[in-house]
Every structure is written in C-alpha cells, then in structure tokens.
Amino acid sequence: MKLLVLLLIAEISISFGLEFHCEFKFSQNYGLIGSVYQCKTSNPNFGLSDPVLYKISGNPTTGFTHRDVKLVEIDGAENLIYIPQDMSNPGLFPNLIALKMSNTGLKHLSGTQLNDYRNLMWLSLSYNQIIEVPDNFFQFTTNLRFIDFNSNSISIVGFDALSPINHQTLVYVGFKNNTCIDKEYSPMDGNFYSFLYDLQYDCQFIETTPIPTTSILPPTEPPTYPPPTFIPTNPTPSTTASPNCQNVDIGEEVCKLNHEIRNLAQVIEKRDQVFQKYEDVLLYVQETLKNINKLLNNKFSLTGFSD
Ligand SMILES: *[C@@H]1O[C@H](CO)[C@@H](O)[C@H](O)[C@H]1NC(C)=O
C-alpha cells in the first residue's frame, strides 16, 4: 500500500509541468533593464511534455519574494525544448520583464510560446538550437526592446517576424553567428531598415539540400510504362456493328469518323489495367468526343461513355 501511494505521488509530480529551483539574486547589469532581482535555474524538473511552470522553490533574499523577480534565467537545461509557459502567473513571477534561456534544447519556436509574456522587454535566447523564427513569434510581445538570437542555427526568419515590434524603441537585435545571417542591430551602429533588409533577404529562402552526386542508394531505374500503343494505327475490329452512314444528313465522312472515334475509345477503355494514367486518357478522349458532338450540333449522339 505504501509503495502504491509513493508510486502515485511520483506519477503526479511527473505529470505536472515544470518546477524551478531558483537561485535568487540580483543580476549583473543588463543594460536596458539594469540590475534586477532574478531567479536563475539550471535544473528544472520536467513534466513529460507539459511546458507549464507550476512550482518554484529556493530561498529569496531577506526582504524579497518571488514576486520581485523581473528576470528568469535558465541556463544549461539541455533537455528543455520549449519556452516555459505561465511564468507570469500571479503565484509565480507576476513582474517578469526579462527572460534569458541559453544552452537549452530549444529548437522550435511558435507563435503562441510568448503568449504569457506580454510585458516582456528583454529576451535573450542566445546559445540554443533554434532553427527558425516564425512570422508570428513576437505577436504578443510588442514591447520588446532587446532581442538576442545570437549563436543559434537559424536558417529562416519570417518576413514579418519583427513587424509587431516598435523598432524606434529597440536598443538591440542580435542574429550573429547563425546559419543564414551573422549580423546585429543597435541604433548606435546602424540603420534599422538596412538591418531588416539583410535579415529578410538572407533568411527568407529555404536552402535546398544539394543532391549528392554519389549516392549510397541503388540507382533507380526509370519507371517502365508499356509502349504508347493506345492509338492503334489499325484499329482493332470494331465491336459495334458497321455503321450505316449512307443516309445520315451530317455527311458520310463525319459519320465514319465518329464511328472510328467510338472504336478507339473502346480500345482504350479495355486497357485500363495497362495504362497507369488511364483516367487522363479517357478524360481527354471524352472531352474530345464531347467537342466533336457539339460541332455536330448534337445531331449524332455518341454512345458507350458515361458523362
Ligand atoms: C556560434 O554558434 C555555435 C552554436 O551554433 C557555438 O557553438 C559557437 O560557440 C558560436 N561561436 C561564437 C564565436 O560564439
């Protein structure tokens, strides 16, 4: 019984989301946000795949609480593959304005990951595994003034990714040491639009993997199709009775042509197991026949085809 309870407790603590053990302290001076009270953690307990932070532990400095934390820093959690959610919950870090994640497994970003970070001014995601910054990534964080993506593996940045952010208040955007770009922006050193142009130009196109000249795979034979004999030069004997084209008012030639077409279509119809693109052939023939029928003012009705 005791064991069962223990197992249950273990199960419950695993199935919840993230738990941070915080080292509470004042951060180094991070420029824009200065030196702020922070929670630094390197060993979050993980929920299986639940990215919600539900519990924090650690000893806040006398006179401070977790509510005073403005910066959360996660460093070296290699198995952490998402941005923790619900961190600014009133019971956790309601005054959060800065997030720093580095040396984690963060690789994929999405447009909803910053949903809970609407007051964020400062975001550093340098030294992770990020490969793409999607268009809507900053849709909820329009007050960001410092953005650092340096030293990731980014090869695509959405064309409008930076659009939601007021660039006049931006103090830094870093995309140094990435796959598609190695540049940063600060108002002192450059023009925002020329930086944006480079970012859009360099990181818009998906690089196609070059096809190796020597392959370890066996050479693929071109697919073999039966020879294109579906238009017989000598149409197989007709299965329909020879037409009586003598007294039709559309003319004997047209009557015969129509008969030949009907034969041809029947030949094709019988070969549906042979021709892989049979539907295309039949469709084409059907269209052709319809057009001919129209031309003949519907005086001569073709039989043997479903519409
Ligand atoms: C560049 O980024 C890679 C990770 O993508 C990192 O390992 C390397 O240390 C970075 N180089 C510098 C100079 O920061």
- In CATH, the architecture of the largest domain is Alpha-Beta Horseshoe
The unreliable regions are 5-13, 227-240, 271-276
- Report how far the terminal alpha carbons are from each other: 73 Å
Give the averaged pLDDT, no decimals. Answer: 78
Please give the domain count. 2
Q: Helix/strand-derived class?
A: alpha/beta
The gross shape turns out to be elongated
Ligands, ions, cofactors: 2-acetamido-2-deoxy-beta-D-glucopyranose
The CATH first-level class of the largest domain comes to: Alpha Beta
Specify the number of helices. 4
Strand content: 5-15%
Q: Mind summarizing the main beta sheet?
A: 8 strands, mixed
Q: Please count the beta strands (DSSP E, at least 2 residues each).
A: 12
Tell me roughly what share of residues is in helical segments. 10-25%
Question: Helix and strand layout, with pairings?
Answer:
Elements lengths: L1 H14 L2 E4 L1 E4 L10 E5 L11 E5 L13 E5 L22 E5 L19 E3 L7 E2 L12 E3 L7 E2 L14 E4 L7 E3 L6 H12 L48 H18 L8 H18 L12
Parallel strand pairs: 1-4, 3-5, 5-6, 6-7, 7-9, 8-10, 9-11
Antiparallel strand pairs: 2-3, 11-12
Helix pairs in contact: 3-4
The structure holds 2-acetamido-2-deoxy-beta-D-glucopyranose.
List keywords for this structure.
signal; eight-stranded mixed beta sheet; two-stranded parallel sheet; single chain; elongated; Leucine-rich repeat, LRR (right-handed beta-alpha superhelix); LRR_dom_sf; 307 residues; 20% helix; alpha/beta
Question: How would you summarize what this structure contains?
Answer:
Helices cover 20% and strands 15% of the residues. With 307 residues, it is α/β, with parallel strands linked by helices.
